[in-house]
Amino acid sequence: MAENETLECITEHERILQEIESTDTACVGPTLRSIYDDQPNAHKRFMEKLDARIRNHDREIEKMCNFHHQGFVDAITELLKVRADAEKLMGQVTDTNRRLQEAGREVMAQTEEVIRCRIQQRNMATTVEKLQLCIPVLEMYSKLKEQLESKRYYAALKTMEQLEKIYIPRVSQYRFCQIMAENLPRLREEIKEISMSDLKDFLESIRKHSDKVGETAMRQAQQHRTFNSAVAKQVSMGHYMKPVYSLNGRTHTHNGLMMDTGDEDEADEEILTAQDLVDFSPVYRCLHIYTVLGDRETFENYYRKQRKKQARLVLQPQANMHETVEGYTRYFNQIVGFFVVEDHILHATRGLVTRAFNDELWNMALSKIIAVLRTHSSYCNDPDLVLELKNLIVIFADTLQGYGFPVNRLFDLLFEVRDQYNETLLKKWALVFREIFELDNYSPIPVETEGEYKLVVSRFPFHDAEIEKQDFPKKLPMSQSVPQIYTQVKEFIYASLKFSESLHRSSTEIDDMLRKSTNLLLTRTLSSCLQNLIKKPHIGLTELVQIIINTTHLEQACRYLEEFITNITNVSPETVHTTRLYGLSTFKDARHAAEGEIYTKLNQKIDEFIQLADYEWGMAESDGRASGYLMDLINFLRSTFQVFTHLPGKVAQTACMSACKHLSTSLMQMLLDTELKQISMGAIQQFNLDVIQCELFASSEPVPGFQGDTLQLAFIDLRQLLDLFMVWDWSTYLADYGQPTSKYLRVNPATALALLEKMKDTSKKNNIFSQFRKNDRDKQKLVETVVRQLRSLVNGMSS
Predict the structure, then answer these.
(1) Cis peptide upstream of residue 461 (ω within 30 degrees of 0)
(2) Does 463 share its domain with 560?
(3) In this structure, are 576 and 634 located in the same domain?
(4) I need a surface site. Which of 153, 265, 545, 702 has the fewest CB within 10 A?
(5) Which domain holds residue 539?
(6) Is residue 272 within 8 Å of 215, Cβ to Cβ?
(7) Could you read off the pLDDT of 145-163 as tens digits, one per residue?
(8) What are 27-63's pLDDT values in tens digits?
């Protein structure tokens, strides 16, 4: 067992020795550590083994040295022999080297110079090569600077793009290229700012030029409309067959239609467009710049926002715009100029503004325009200014319609303006009518010669066979105001017709508008003027009579006015929807008002005469003749009713009957006046004489046409009352009271009682009853009896 372990230990030591011999010394440590980690005292056996191995190697070295010692000695001997030759050779080599160094020193200097030149040449070639790459970059950058200085910003942006994408990447390693690359974004921003500044200047400039652009566009639209109107008229006359053409400044035509296109000033005027009047390059340039920079949407939004603001400013009218046509013209020119510019931008650019955007702007503007025109036209009182406003609106609408904007609401507005125009016309003609009435002498028109007669008839449709048969000089029944009124009504129709021109309306609609406006003139303006005239205090009975005659002739002339309108519009009056003139009712109403005023003034005049009455109510007996005031009143009535001969029969008869009734009533009120306390029989007799004169006047037929004693019946109440007291026929009155055949049927018991009370009192003064007491007291008792009976009748009536 012990032998086996010893044998294994020897084998292990042998392996370790081989490993130590064959491996690097750096790896010996782990191997030696394994010896100490093995069995106890193993290292001693290993040391013994190691010593034995060393002795073995020493013997082998010794054997090898002994084997090679003679050859080594021989080699040393040979080496000693060549030592002297080597020293000699060394001297020769040294000398040769010295001489070679001296000879090659100049060559070395030249070689170094060649090397230095070669290096310089190589550097120059490299520099040229690099410069050839940098020069285009610098040239492009210089070109960029020039473009910026000359404000060719769009080209500058293209140059920047080439620099960034082509040139700078080739030499990006150089510092100056990096600086260039860093500057390009800043230059782009500067270009954006400059182009935006130019755009702002353009927007500011366009505000100033919009007026001129709009004026030019509206003038061209007006010329076009005038030309079309002239062509239409010549077509209607059959003169127009083929279009006009111009050659070398000379006019040529076919079949009659001539236009002067030669050297006339009007034809020489060049047709200008918005592009001729406004430089749009800032917009195009700015649009291209922002498009290239990829910021087109920002530019579009900014442009639209600014134009909306400018639209609101343009739509703001001046406070006194309604005072002159120039104010309206300037307002329309600015609006037209604004939308003409927008229309040009729409068609000249792609997407900067859209049709929807323009339509939105126009709808906003249209609402504002209509509101402004409604407000300002309402302030206008001059029909000529309203008419010019209408013409401006038509040209304004036609102009914008030519650019594709819908204008139907503007033509609808014209109907409102037409009403305003009619109102101003009515106010103007109201002043004309008032002046005519104020200057009229309200007397028949005298005509001395045939020429004067024809002049009046040419102005007013008057035809009277009897008057035409009369010799000159003669008088026409109406006053001077009648032909003047008729002429002014026709002038009003012409003025109203002017507004209907160019409204694109049919003849039927124009005819209807003319008839309605004429109806307003007759039924409102002229009627109001007539009513005011009739109510004026200075208009007397003679004037009122003439007014009635005038309105009669004006009423008869209404049919001629209808014919006049028909001739203007060529619309038959038999058309179903044709409006009729209401002049008949107007003049009838005025005539009725004049008749009523005649009755009123006649009664007032009677009252004035009545106020002059100065009866002595206590007189013993009458003067034997009628009172002076009454005779003056009757004479006045006679002369007045003579003037009524030209009035219609019923008017004169009604006036006469009204006057007689009013006179009768006034006389009756005079007798029954509560302030009158006593009346003598003499006063009754005097009063009776006055009533007799009234009855004589009534029976003299002051106005023809009364049947029998119709007019005398106006005084029947007075007559029966006075007869009752004059005859003192109380027995008959009391006996027949209430009977249809009573002699005193119109005498009221209360009236008789009141008058009898005034005659009964004898206690205060010496009156008619004083002789009753002297002559017959029974009569006094009779009076008292009559009074009691009358009172009983009055009480019976009241119950």
Answers:
(1) no
(2) yes
(3) no
(4) 265
(5) 424-589
(6) no
(7) 887 788 787 788 788 778 7
(8) 667 766 766 666 666 677 778 888 888 888 888 888 8
| Contact partners, residue 606, CB within 8 Å, separation at least 6 | 633, 637, 659, 662, 663, 666
Residue 320 covered by a domain: yes
Q: How many CB atoms lie within 10 A of CB 180?
A: 23
Query: How would you classify the pairing of strands 445-447 and 474-476?
Result: antiparallel
Task: Specify the 3-state DSSP secondary structure of 476.
Answer: strand
What pLDDT, on the 0 to 100 scale, is given for residue 98?
A: 87
The total of structural domains in the chain comes to 4
Please report whether residue 742 resides in a domain: yes
| Residues 430, 569 share a domain | yes
Identify whether the C-beta of residue 213 lies closer than 8 Å to the C-beta of residue 337: yes
**Residue from 350, 294, 299 nearest 161 by CA:** 294
Residue 531 is assigned to a structural domain of this protein: yes
**3-class secondary-structure state, position 246:** strand
Q: Is 535 found in the same domain as 439? A: yes
User: pLDDT per residue over 350-402, tens digit each?
Assistant: 778 888 888 888 888 888 888 888 887 777 777 888 888 888 888 888 888 88
Contact call for residues 560 and 493 (beta carbons, < 8 A): no
pLDDT at position 105 is 85
Rounded to 5°, angle at Cα 40 from 37 and 42: 80
Question: In what helix (H) or strand (E) does residue 161 lie, and over which residues does it extend?
Answer: helix 153-162
Which tokens is 163 given? 């620099």
The pTM of this model reads 0.64
Structure tokens that stand for 794 in this block: 């009055």
Beta bridge partners of 445: 476
Last residue of some domain: 128, 157, 187? 128
Same domain? 308 vs 443: no
The dihedrals phi and psi of 291, each to the nearest 5 degrees, come to -65, -45
Are the CB atoms for 182 and 163 separated by under 8 Å? no
Please give the Cα distance from 762 to 770 (Å, whole number). Answer: 7
Report pLDDT digits (tens) over 45-55: 778 888 888 88
Please indicate, yes or no, whether residues 690 and 759 belong to a single structural domain of this protein. yes
Distance between CA atoms of residues 408 and 360, nearest Å: 16
Of the residues 352, 370, 405, which one is the last residue of a structural domain? Answer: 405
pLDDT score for 115: 92
Q: Are 555 and 533 in contact (CB under 8 A)?
A: no
d(CA 466, CA 588): 25
Other C-beta atoms within 10 Å of 342: how many? Answer: 22
State the sign of the Cα–Cα–Cα–Cα dihedral 299, 300, 304, 307.
positive
266-280, 710-724, 767-781: which has the highest mean pLDDT? 710-724
Give the CATH number, domain containing residue 389. Answer: 1.20.1310
Q: Are residues 431 and 349 in the same domain?
A: no
Output the DSSP codes for 272-330.
--HHHHS--HHHHHHHHHHHHTT-HHHHHHHHHHHHHHHHHHHTPPPTTGGG-HHHHHH
578 shares a domain with 449: yes
Residue 153 counted as domain residue? no
Which CATH number characterizes residue 717's domain? 1.20.58.670
